[in-house]
Design brief:
The structure holds 2 protein chains of 2 kinds.
Chain A (H helix, E strand, L loop, with lengths): L9 E3 L1 H19 L9 H4 L3 H9 L18 H13 L5 H17 L2 H13 L4 E4 L15 E5 L2 E8 L10 E7 L12 E7 L5 E7 L5 E14 L3 E2 L5 H7 L1 H6 L8 H13 L6 H25 L5 H25 L8 H17 L6 H11 L4
Chain B lengths: L7 E3 L4 H17 L11 H9 L18 H13 L6 H15 L8 E4 L6 E6 L6 E8 L2 E8 L4 E3 L9 E5 L2 H5 L2 E3 L1 H36 L1 E2 L2 E2 L4 H31 L6 H27 L10 H12 L5 H26 L16
Parallel strand pairs in B: 2-4
Antiparallel strand pairs in B: 3-7, 4-5, 5-8, 6-7, 9-10
Helix pairs in contact in B: 1-3, 3-6, 4-6, 6-7, 6-8, 6-9, 7-8, 8-9, 8-10
């Protein structure tokens, strides 16, 4: 192993800390005012367009989007601390999550001038809400096997196929769909894929709920029945969909949402131990230590990305450790509780939600089995 | 666009220093004798390190040190541990040398080790005691901390060895020598445990990084069923896990080292930062040692193989300056006292309360 698996650490300087504290103070006020109830896994499960627009007004959306497109023209590191603060307090951030994390950066990198003008200002104001359409009924980890077809027609493309696990499609305005624009060549499976910007209210789009095991509706099946996509809504180059999708993976996998989905539960457990409602146990310290170390590691990856360094393997490390850890927190708190023992309502609610959301942590955005393969490749084993 | 230099400051050791040390320890590894079950001080290596100014890397230049900081010192400890180098760098410089400076006592450069004798004047598991010319004792005398630099011929040593096969002796002091020690500030007594714990973390991480290299080399070379075992997914996942745990331990340790260096150990968040390092390193050690021996198969359990020269010190050192359980309990106490509303502040600043006096945990080093 010649290189380190994870980039060297970096210390957060006062300019970032000031931003962190500014966001923290705002969020504390919001909680005190009852604007939202802190929860777990809020980047999937808590939509609040008003809250999202308020963040936009405060300049905490579109942070890496240049000012000429209505964004803040700031850095990924600044976005990183804002993101952390939103997640730890369990704020309702699902409405803008996908747009802020990957749609905006993808549009910046691959979008036409017209597309940037059309979408980036709305994304930065928190008014345009996006989803992402990658998985299909028969394509999960093996994404190159997607079957949604894009057929060339006069002036554009017709999309036919089914996307699944599309978070928030029933609330979103549009999504990016990965589709096969040329027949599958088994020798070059990653070729012939393209990305399309699909208006989710266009004719031929049918959205059906996929209800999660706790009874909640976050996921959807999006059926595309010959949906017409004009040429100006092709993202990037036709046939380059795979490399376009892959290029943003490090951002998608290394962020604080891979570590902090259950932070509100961990914080509630710490309080319950202090109050004597949970038994004092060294496991709490162990989990807190891992969250702290992952905070440093995730920040180190962000710093490397900010300097345009390759961090795909490091991002996979963050995601494997982080998503395992956030799920382990749910299981850990569960092992401290006894049936018939009255916990407080808040801890109970957080715990049950965390346990039900947990299986998804190590699946979404690349399963941990796939990611261990990515790490093994980074180590030169594949 | 904001200037990135205003946002984050990388904390990396001096590349020239790392280059010199990498060469030196590569040479040491290439020329050393085959591994043994018991490990004694390598005086030749110690001398080479001394000539390079490495044995007193963090000592003040005015008193014969090299004036280095904790970032460089942690790199040195890690590289030495990766080479399984039997030299008391942490004891002599980062702990012993620092205590002497704190007490204003002279340092003749003679080999030192360090310990905290109990009220009866006895210290257990004093690494390298038999090899030292003097032993720096930190003694809690009623409400005061004292430092005494005691010549080796004034203590009684019962020779013992730790799990790594290294000298780890029982030392009995004459109480007069301890009572005549120099009084030092309270913070010195409290910092000692933290400094020791962080030095051990840096050593264990360095050794674990070498273990990952050893494992990778083995799974590429060793063939079964007609292919290198590293081609099997089960083996790839095992190796990915030990490499990831090692990376997490590295991130935690580097963060604590950076905080120590930036604040010269005055940051009130040091107890938490060191605890995070010690906890992550200790838990990683379980995964790494177990996984590495599994990957290496029976050959890795033999005396002639390098692996035990790393895994034995890893386990020996993770229990020094507080057991893993002690540190997890310390972190639990900090986290629960921070409570719901300040847990994240604790994680980002190390402070459980707006202005708290945080005492280190019970010391059993």
């Amino acid at each position: 192993m010649s290189a380190r698996l994870v980039p060297p650490g970096a210390r957060e300087l006062p300019a970032l800390t000031d931003l962190r504290l500014e966001v923290r103070a705002f969020l504390a006020d919001q909680v005190a005012a009852g604007a939202f109830v802190p929860h777990v896994d809020t980047w999937l499960t808590r939509w609040d367009r008003d809250f999202t627009r308020e963040l936009g007004r405060r300049g905490w959306l579109g942070m890496v989007i240049p000012t000429e497109y209505g964004g803040q023209g700031r850095t990924y590191l600044e976005r990183f601390v804002v993101t952390e603060e939103l997640l730890v307090v369990g704020a309702p951030v699902a409405a803008h999550w996908i747009a802020e994390r990957q749609i905006g950066p993808s549009l910046l990198r691959y979008g036409t001038e017209e597309q940037k003008q059309a979408f980036l200002p709305g994304i930065s104001r928190g008014e345009v809400v996006f989803g992402i359409g990658m998985s299909e009924p028969d394509s999960g980890s093996d994404l190159a096997s997607v079957r949604t077809r894009a057929e060339r027609v006069d002036g554009g493309w017709r999309l036919t196929g089914t996307k699944v696990w599309t978070s928030g499609a029933h609330e979103a305005d549009a999504f990016f769909a990965l589709a096969r624009s040329a027949p599958l060549d088994p020798a070059h499976r990653h070729e012939g894929l393209s990305q399309f910007i699909v208006d989710l209210r266009a004719p031929g789009v049918t959205i059906r709920p996929i209800i999660s095991m706790g009874g909640d509706h976050h996921f959807n099946e999006v059926h595309l029945d010959g949906v017409l996509i004009p040429d100006e809504r092709v993202l990037g180059e036709v046939g380059q969909g795979w490399s376009q999708v892959s290029s943003e993976l490090a951002y998608e996998r290394s962020g604080p949402e891979r570590v902090l989905s259950t932070f509100q539960l961990l914080a509630a457990a710490a309080q319950a131990m202090d109050d004597g409602r949970l038994p004092t146990d060294p496991g709490l310290g162990r989990h807190v230590a891992r969250v702290a170390a992952l905070h440093h590691m995730s920040f180190a990856v962000s710093t490397a990305l900010e300097h345009h360094e390759d961090a795909d393997t490091a991002a996979a490390v963050v995601k494997v450790l982080g998503t395992t850890g956030e799920g382990d927190i749910a299981d850990y708190v569960d092992t401290l509780t006894a049936s018939g023992w009255a916990l407080d309502e808040e801890l109970d609610t957080l715990l049950h939600a965390a346990i039900l959301q947990r299986p998804g942590f190590t699946l979404r955005g690349g399963t941990n089995e796939i990611l261990r393969g990515v790490i093994a490749r980074g180590l030169g084993m594949r | 666009m904001t200037d990135l230099r205003d946002l984050a400051e990388p904390t990396t050791p001096d590349p020239d220093l790392v280059g010199v040390l990498t060469d030196l320890f590569a040479d040491y590894r290439a020329t050393r004798a085959t591994p043994t079950a018991v490990v004694d001080l390598d005086r030749d290596l110690w001398q080479r390190l001394e000539q390079l100014g490495m044995t007193r890397l963090t000592g003040r230049e005015s008193s014969g040190g090299s004036g280095g900081g904790w970032v460089d010192a942690a790199a040195l400890l890690g590289l030495a541990a990766a080479a399984a180098a039997p030299v008391p760098l942490a004891e002599h410089d980062l702990l012993g040398g620092w205590l002497l400076e704190a007490a204003g006592l002279p340092n003749d450069g003679g080999l030192r080790t360090v310990c905290r004798p109990d009220p009866s004047g006895v210290a257990l598991n004093v690494t390298w005691a038999r090899d030292a010319s003097r032993i720096v004792a930190l003694w809690e005398d009623r409400d005061q901390w004292r430092v005494a630099d005691v010549p080796i011929d004034r203590v009684a040593i019962e020779e013992r060895r730790n799990l790594a096969g290294e000298p780890s002796d029982t030392v009995e002091f004459d109480l007069d020598d301890l009572e005549n020690g120099t009084v030092v500030a309270h913070e010195i007594g409290e910092q000692f445990h933290l400094r020791g714990a962080l030095a051990r973390s840096a050593q264990v991480v360095g050794a674990m990084e070498r273990v990952v290299e050893v494992v990778l080399a083995h799974v590429r070379e060793r063939e079964q069923f007609g292919r290198p075992i590293g081609r099997f997914q089960a083996v790839q996942h095992l190796v990915a896990d030990i490499a990831s745990e090692t990376a997490l331990a590295r991130a935690a340790t580097d963060a604590a080292v950076a905080r120590a260096a930036a604040s010269e150990w005055r940051d009130p968040g040091m107890l938490f930062a060191v605890g995070v390092a010690k906890s992550c390193v200790g838990h990683a050690a379980s995964v790494v040692v177990r996984g590495a021996h599994q990957a290496l198969g029976a050959i890795g359990t033999t005396l002639e193989h390098e692996l035990h020269t790393l895994t034995r010190p890893i386990l020996a050192r993770r229990s020094e300056y507080g057991s893993l359980q002690d540190w997890d309990e310390t972190l639990t106490a900090l986290a629960s006292s921070a409570g719901h509303d300040r847990l994240w502040t604790l994680i980002t600043t190390g402070r459980a309360k707006p202005s708290s006096g945080q005492r280190p945990p019970h010391d059993n080093a």
